[in-house]
Write a structure and sequence with these properties.
Elements (H helix, E strand, L loop, with lengths): L5 E10 L2 E11 L4 E5 L6 H8 L7 E6 L2 E3 L4 H6 L2 E5 L10 H6 L5 E2 L6 E2 L1 H14 L17 H14 L4 E5 L7 H16 L3 E5 L3 H7 L2 E6 L2 E7 L6 H9 L3 H9 L17
Parallel strand pairs: 3-10, 3-11, 6-9, 9-10
Antiparallel strand pairs: 1-2, 1-4, 4-5, 7-8, 11-12
The structure holds adenosine-5'-triphosphate (ATP) and magnesium ion (MG).
Protein backbone atom coordinates (compact mmCIF):
# COMPACT_ATOMS: atom_id res chain seq x y z
CA UNK A 1 0.00 0.00 0.00
CA UNK A 2 1.25 3.45 -0.86
CA UNK A 3 2.73 5.45 2.01
CA UNK A 4 0.16 7.87 3.34
CA UNK A 5 0.63 11.62 3.15
CA UNK A 6 -1.23 12.10 6.43
CA UNK A 7 -1.92 9.64 9.20
CA UNK A 8 -4.02 10.73 12.16
CA UNK A 9 -3.70 7.88 14.63
CA UNK A 10 -6.21 7.17 17.42
CA UNK A 11 -7.13 10.82 17.85
CA UNK A 12 -9.33 11.66 20.80
CA UNK A 13 -10.75 15.02 21.76
CA UNK A 14 -12.97 15.83 24.70
CA UNK A 15 -14.64 19.07 25.57
CA UNK A 16 -15.41 18.55 29.22
CA UNK A 17 -17.78 15.61 29.17
CA UNK A 18 -18.41 15.79 25.42
CA UNK A 19 -16.33 13.25 23.55
CA UNK A 20 -16.07 14.99 20.19
CA UNK A 21 -13.58 12.39 18.88
CA UNK A 22 -13.27 8.91 20.26
CA UNK A 23 -10.14 7.27 18.86
CA UNK A 24 -10.28 8.27 15.21
CA UNK A 25 -7.75 6.89 12.75
CA UNK A 26 -7.80 8.72 9.44
CA UNK A 27 -5.52 8.58 6.43
CA UNK A 28 -5.01 10.61 3.29
CA UNK A 29 -2.79 9.31 0.50
CA UNK A 30 -0.84 11.43 -1.98
CA UNK A 31 -2.99 12.69 -4.88
CA UNK A 32 -6.14 11.54 -3.19
CA UNK A 33 -9.45 13.35 -2.74
CA UNK A 34 -11.17 12.14 0.41
CA UNK A 35 -14.79 12.98 1.19
CA UNK A 36 -15.47 13.23 4.91
CA UNK A 37 -19.14 12.74 5.69
CA UNK A 38 -21.26 12.55 8.80
CA UNK A 39 -24.27 14.07 10.47
CA UNK A 40 -24.18 17.33 12.43
CA UNK A 41 -21.89 16.96 15.41
CA UNK A 42 -20.22 13.76 14.11
CA UNK A 43 -16.79 15.30 14.67
CA UNK A 44 -15.70 16.18 11.13
CA UNK A 45 -14.73 19.78 11.80
CA UNK A 46 -13.02 18.88 15.05
CA UNK A 47 -10.90 16.29 13.23
CA UNK A 48 -9.76 18.65 10.52
CA UNK A 49 -9.26 21.52 12.98
CA UNK A 50 -6.77 19.28 14.77
CA UNK A 51 -4.97 18.71 11.47
CA UNK A 52 -4.96 22.41 10.65
CA UNK A 53 -3.65 23.45 14.06
CA UNK A 54 -6.78 25.22 15.31
CA UNK A 55 -7.58 22.62 17.99
CA UNK A 56 -5.27 20.46 20.14
CA UNK A 57 -6.19 16.79 20.50
CA UNK A 58 -6.60 15.25 23.94
CA UNK A 59 -4.55 12.28 22.72
CA UNK A 60 -3.33 10.62 19.54
CA UNK A 61 -0.56 11.12 16.99
CA UNK A 62 -0.25 12.81 13.63
CA UNK A 63 2.34 11.80 11.03
CA UNK A 64 3.05 13.46 7.72
CA UNK A 65 4.91 11.36 5.17
CA UNK A 66 5.76 8.92 7.93
CA UNK A 67 7.24 11.54 10.26
CA UNK A 68 5.55 12.37 13.51
CA UNK A 69 4.61 16.04 13.70
CA UNK A 70 3.31 18.39 16.35
CA UNK A 71 0.81 20.81 14.84
CA UNK A 72 0.20 23.58 17.36
CA UNK A 73 -0.88 26.38 15.07
CA UNK A 74 -2.07 27.24 11.57
CA UNK A 75 1.51 28.25 10.89
CA UNK A 76 2.74 24.75 11.81
CA UNK A 77 0.10 23.27 9.52
CA UNK A 78 1.10 25.51 6.61
CA UNK A 79 4.75 24.66 7.18
CA UNK A 80 3.72 21.01 6.81
CA UNK A 81 1.94 21.76 3.54
CA UNK A 82 -1.62 21.84 4.92
CA UNK A 83 -3.97 24.64 3.96
CA UNK A 84 -7.54 24.84 5.23
CA UNK A 85 -10.40 26.65 3.58
CA UNK A 86 -13.53 27.39 5.59
CA UNK A 87 -16.66 29.06 4.33
CA UNK A 88 -15.56 32.29 5.96
CA UNK A 89 -11.94 31.41 5.59
CA UNK A 90 -8.99 33.02 7.25
CA UNK A 91 -9.17 36.08 5.05
CA UNK A 92 -8.90 39.64 6.31
CA UNK A 93 -11.92 41.62 5.01
CA UNK A 94 -10.22 45.01 5.18
CA UNK A 95 -7.22 43.94 3.11
CA UNK A 96 -7.11 43.65 -0.67
CA UNK A 97 -7.31 40.38 -2.60
CA UNK A 98 -3.59 40.63 -3.26
CA UNK A 99 -2.64 41.21 0.36
CA UNK A 100 -4.82 38.31 1.42
CA UNK A 101 -3.18 36.03 -1.10
CA UNK A 102 0.26 36.70 0.31
CA UNK A 103 -0.60 37.24 3.94
CA UNK A 104 2.64 36.72 5.88
CA UNK A 105 4.45 35.38 2.82
CA UNK A 106 4.92 38.58 0.82
CA UNK A 107 7.78 38.73 -1.66
CA UNK A 108 10.30 41.38 -0.59
CA UNK A 109 11.88 43.90 -2.95
CA UNK A 110 15.27 45.45 -2.33
CA UNK A 111 17.37 44.86 0.77
CA UNK A 112 15.66 42.49 3.20
CA UNK A 113 15.97 44.87 6.21
CA UNK A 114 13.82 47.50 4.48
CA UNK A 115 11.06 44.91 4.39
CA UNK A 116 9.47 46.53 1.34
CA UNK A 117 6.87 44.34 -0.29
CA UNK A 118 7.09 43.78 -4.00
CA UNK A 119 3.60 45.06 -4.85
CA UNK A 120 4.03 44.76 -8.60
CA UNK A 121 5.03 41.12 -8.42
CA UNK A 122 2.15 40.37 -6.08
CA UNK A 123 -0.42 42.06 -8.35
CA UNK A 124 0.78 40.11 -11.38
CA UNK A 125 0.55 36.81 -9.55
CA UNK A 126 -2.83 37.77 -8.09
CA UNK A 127 -4.29 38.55 -11.52
CA UNK A 128 -3.09 35.25 -12.90
CA UNK A 129 -4.40 33.29 -9.91
CA UNK A 130 -7.84 34.87 -10.05
CA UNK A 131 -8.10 33.80 -13.67
CA UNK A 132 -6.98 30.27 -12.85
CA UNK A 133 -9.59 29.82 -10.13
CA UNK A 134 -12.30 30.92 -12.52
CA UNK A 135 -12.93 34.54 -11.57
CA UNK A 136 -13.46 35.81 -15.07
CA UNK A 137 -15.14 39.03 -14.02
CA UNK A 138 -12.58 41.77 -14.08
CA UNK A 139 -12.09 42.31 -10.37
CA UNK A 140 -8.99 44.39 -9.66
CA UNK A 141 -6.69 42.56 -7.21
CA UNK A 142 -6.66 45.74 -5.11
CA UNK A 143 -10.34 45.19 -4.21
CA UNK A 144 -10.87 44.65 -0.48
CA UNK A 145 -12.01 41.12 0.38
CA UNK A 146 -14.95 42.61 2.28
CA UNK A 147 -16.63 43.64 -0.94
CA UNK A 148 -16.49 40.19 -2.59
CA UNK A 149 -19.25 37.59 -2.61
CA UNK A 150 -18.91 34.39 -0.56
CA UNK A 151 -17.94 32.41 -3.63
CA UNK A 152 -15.36 34.92 -4.74
CA UNK A 153 -13.80 34.87 -1.28
CA UNK A 154 -13.71 31.12 -1.48
CA UNK A 155 -11.91 31.38 -4.79
CA UNK A 156 -9.31 33.70 -3.26
CA UNK A 157 -8.64 31.23 -0.44
CA UNK A 158 -8.34 28.44 -2.99
CA UNK A 159 -5.98 30.54 -5.09
CA UNK A 160 -3.79 30.98 -2.04
CA UNK A 161 -3.60 27.24 -1.44
CA UNK A 162 -2.72 26.69 -5.10
CA UNK A 163 -0.04 29.33 -5.21
CA UNK A 164 1.77 28.07 -2.15
CA UNK A 165 1.66 24.48 -3.39
CA UNK A 166 0.02 23.04 -0.33
CA UNK A 167 0.22 19.23 -0.41
CA UNK A 168 -3.11 18.91 1.33
CA UNK A 169 -6.02 21.27 0.94
CA UNK A 170 -8.85 20.91 3.42
CA UNK A 171 -12.26 22.27 2.47
CA UNK A 172 -14.85 22.33 5.27
CA UNK A 173 -18.30 23.03 3.82
CA UNK A 174 -16.83 25.18 1.05
CA UNK A 175 -20.03 25.26 -0.97
CA UNK A 176 -22.34 26.48 1.83
CA UNK A 177 -24.34 29.50 0.73
CA UNK A 178 -22.73 29.52 -2.69
CA UNK A 179 -24.56 30.11 -5.95
CA UNK A 180 -24.74 27.42 -8.62
CA UNK A 181 -21.88 28.76 -10.72
CA UNK A 182 -19.68 29.35 -7.69
CA UNK A 183 -20.39 25.86 -6.38
CA UNK A 184 -19.43 24.39 -9.75
CA UNK A 185 -16.21 26.39 -9.57
CA UNK A 186 -15.30 24.91 -6.20
CA UNK A 187 -16.13 21.38 -7.37
CA UNK A 188 -14.05 21.88 -10.48
CA UNK A 189 -11.19 23.06 -8.34
CA UNK A 190 -11.35 19.97 -6.13
CA UNK A 191 -11.40 17.71 -9.18
CA UNK A 192 -8.40 19.52 -10.66
CA UNK A 193 -6.49 19.41 -7.39
CA UNK A 194 -5.63 15.75 -7.92
CA UNK A 195 -4.25 16.39 -11.39
CA UNK A 196 -2.02 19.14 -10.09
CA UNK A 197 -0.54 16.89 -7.42
CA UNK A 198 -2.58 17.94 -4.39
CA UNK A 199 -4.55 15.87 -1.95
CA UNK A 200 -7.86 17.13 -0.60
CA UNK A 201 -10.20 16.53 2.29
CA UNK A 202 -13.65 17.63 1.24
CA UNK A 203 -16.42 18.04 3.83
CA UNK A 204 -19.93 18.82 2.60
CA UNK A 205 -23.47 18.03 3.62
CA UNK A 206 -24.48 17.70 -0.02
CA UNK A 207 -23.57 14.07 -0.71
CA UNK A 208 -24.16 14.56 -4.42
CA UNK A 209 -21.35 17.11 -4.50
CA UNK A 210 -19.09 14.72 -2.64
CA UNK A 211 -19.93 11.89 -5.05
CA UNK A 212 -19.00 14.10 -7.99
CA UNK A 213 -15.43 14.74 -6.92
CA UNK A 214 -13.96 12.30 -4.40
CA UNK A 215 -11.93 9.10 -4.73
CA UNK A 216 -12.87 7.70 -1.35
CA UNK A 217 -15.49 8.41 1.29
CA UNK A 218 -14.95 8.27 5.04
CA UNK A 219 -18.00 8.38 7.28
CA UNK A 220 -18.00 9.55 10.90
CA UNK A 221 -20.71 9.01 13.44
CA UNK A 222 -20.67 10.27 17.02
CA UNK A 223 -16.93 10.86 17.16
CA UNK A 224 -15.93 7.64 15.43
CA UNK A 225 -15.08 6.52 11.93
CA UNK A 226 -17.71 3.96 10.93
CA UNK A 227 -16.55 3.42 7.34
CA UNK A 228 -13.29 4.50 5.76
CA UNK A 229 -13.15 2.90 2.37
CA UNK A 230 -16.32 3.67 0.47
CA UNK A 231 -15.78 3.92 -3.27
CA UNK A 232 -18.29 6.38 -4.75
CA UNK A 233 -18.07 4.59 -8.10
CA UNK A 234 -19.38 1.31 -6.73
CA UNK A 235 -22.05 2.46 -4.29
CA UNK A 236 -25.07 4.73 -4.22
CA UNK A 237 -25.91 7.96 -2.46
CA UNK A 238 -28.73 6.13 -0.63
CA UNK A 239 -26.39 3.51 0.81
CA UNK A 240 -23.98 6.13 2.03
CA UNK A 241 -26.86 8.02 3.61
CA UNK A 242 -27.70 4.86 5.55
CA UNK A 243 -24.14 4.63 6.80
CA UNK A 244 -24.25 8.27 7.86
CA UNK A 245 -27.48 8.04 9.83
CA UNK A 246 -26.71 4.54 11.07
CA UNK A 247 -29.31 1.95 11.71
CA UNK A 248 -30.16 1.13 15.29
CA UNK A 249 -30.13 -2.53 16.34
CA UNK A 250 -33.90 -2.34 16.38
CA UNK A 251 -34.06 -1.11 12.80
CA UNK A 252 -31.51 -3.68 11.76
CA UNK A 253 -33.52 -6.48 13.33
CA UNK A 254 -36.64 -5.21 11.64
CA UNK A 255 -34.79 -5.20 8.36
CA UNK A 256 -33.66 -8.78 8.86
CA UNK A 257 -37.15 -9.92 9.77
CA UNK A 258 -38.55 -8.22 6.71
CA UNK A 259 -35.90 -8.94 4.11
CA UNK A 260 -35.72 -6.28 1.46
CA UNK A 261 -37.25 -3.63 3.73
CA UNK A 262 -33.88 -2.05 4.28
CA UNK A 263 -30.72 -2.98 2.46
CA UNK A 264 -27.98 -3.59 5.06
CA UNK A 265 -24.98 -1.47 4.20
CA UNK A 266 -21.39 -2.77 3.95
CA UNK A 267 -20.27 -0.92 7.08
CA UNK A 268 -22.84 -2.83 9.09
CA UNK A 269 -22.22 -6.15 7.38
CA UNK A 270 -20.18 -7.39 10.33
CA UNK A 271 -23.21 -7.08 12.57
CA UNK A 272 -24.43 -10.46 13.69
CA UNK A 273 -27.18 -11.78 11.52
CA UNK A 274 -26.70 -9.10 8.86
N1 LIG B 1 -15.38 24.29 21.12
C1 LIG B 1 -16.22 23.32 21.51
N2 LIG B 1 -16.65 23.24 22.78
C2 LIG B 1 -17.49 22.27 23.17
N3 LIG B 1 -17.96 21.31 22.35
C3 LIG B 1 -17.57 21.34 21.08
C4 LIG B 1 -16.69 22.34 20.58
N4 LIG B 1 -16.47 22.11 19.27
C5 LIG B 1 -17.19 21.02 18.96
N5 LIG B 1 -17.85 20.55 20.02
C6 LIG B 1 -18.72 19.37 20.05
O1 LIG B 1 -18.04 18.31 19.45
C7 LIG B 1 -18.92 17.53 18.64
C8 LIG B 1 -18.40 17.46 17.22
O2 LIG B 1 -18.50 18.74 16.62
P1 LIG B 1 -17.97 19.07 15.15
O3 LIG B 1 -18.07 20.53 14.95
O4 LIG B 1 -16.65 18.44 14.96
O5 LIG B 1 -19.05 18.30 14.25
P2 LIG B 1 -19.23 18.29 12.68
O6 LIG B 1 -19.19 16.86 12.24
O7 LIG B 1 -18.28 19.21 12.03
O8 LIG B 1 -20.73 18.81 12.54
P3 LIG B 1 -21.41 19.77 11.41
O9 LIG B 1 -21.73 18.87 10.27
O10 LIG B 1 -22.64 20.25 12.08
O11 LIG B 1 -20.46 20.86 11.07
C9 LIG B 1 -20.28 18.18 18.77
O12 LIG B 1 -21.01 17.47 19.75
C10 LIG B 1 -19.97 19.57 19.21
O13 LIG B 1 -21.01 20.11 19.96
MG1 LIG C 1 -18.49 21.00 10.88
Amino acid sequence: MARELVLMDRIAKSYGRVRALDGVTFRVFPNEIVGLLGDNGAGKSTLIKILSGAVRPTSGDISIRGEKVDIRSTRDAIRNGIETIYQDSALVPQLSITRNLFLGREPIRGPRFLNRMDHEAMETVARDLLRRVGITKNIPPSTPIGSLSGGERQAVAIARAMHFHSDLIILDEPTNNLGVAETQGVLRFVRNARDTGHSCIFIAHNIHHVFQVVDRIVVMRQGRVVADDIDPRTTTVEKVEEVITGMSDHELRAAIERPGAVDPVPALAGHEGA
